[in-house]
């Protein structure tokens, strides 16, 4: 059953020619308030995926799965063939005259590219109300037409569905491609299973995009989306989420939004190449000049052209886009290849690429996040054994990350929550060592700071579903917070 709840009197739907429909706060919103909780119009496999169970969407291993007794689609257990989400496509598949047989576990699997579009198309018969709601969503079909993605979708989805399901006269190519566009523009990645699935939500689709949004997005175990405010929002403010990854550089965000959502982002963050003076996308000038002592940062000459010429903000030296791309591609490949669970690998990467990348660059921040977790993080006792200098480094890395998040992504609850937990653990250990050194005054301050970070971790991860690791981190933070309160003599 489709359902949604907007927090009472929290928001109203507005519209204009430039932005279409969007939501505006109708009163001051307190930090922690839920804005929207909504079940999906439709939920299914991602377009690029290996075989998954058509009932629960859990990934499957080759030779370790069952088949729906009626249609042949893979399931992880017998009960999944009876899941409501599978019934319409099951009946539709039976109509082709033969069962589906998934023989090879390709990634991406060509047959699975069709499944989410088919689920959407079948709503016209199985649930007309949802179908009408789906059709009201933006598809950007005119902007998509002729693009490489559109050509791939035409061959891999729009032409395959009629042929594979033997339904040549049921839908034409344009109908199918419109639905594919709606999925790509409005689909939300749902990280409840491995691999992630995709869901479309009606009301959540009205939230506008910002690369520095004021809302956070989570999910329930049932796949409902939960939109909430990590920080206070003023009456009249427009409510936003991020359609891309806030932890990507501006160039990467712009490219991803253009390719998948078909618009060029003009948000405040994208219009500020320095990203609130964090230089999250910047490079070091000195890395591109032999024996240079310039301490300036390179950014694009034209903020609309991140693949063009770059210029130093201090000495005005220009560097070609090709030289910039070469360094960034090398850094990306090495980042993907490195073993992030190894502290020495993290340090080696940071030492090497700090020559070219600004201290807060996306790639270095990615490694710092790993570093914050691997220093003293192998098991609960490991942090007790690390040297003092490593403990202080862990604290500094966490503090630097939190300061960065507060500037570029203050609503990124998962990043905040995980980092707050690591900082809480490090400060608790520092407090323990101070206690052992009979420095009770320092210990009290450190333990109070640790408790504050544990509470912030809980606040940021409160809405995470029990299926995800973040929920387990939140639960551990609760246990630790209670222990700290007892140590500090704090009563509820």
TrEMBL record:
Gene3D superfamilies: 1.10.220.160, 6.10.140.2220, SET domain (2.170.270.10). This is SET domain-containing protein. Pfam families: SET. Residues 2-244 form the SET domain. It comes from Anopheles funestus. GO terms for molecular function: N-methyltransferase activity; protein methyltransferase activity; S-adenosylmethionine-dependent methyltransferase activity. SUPFAM superfamilies: SET domain.
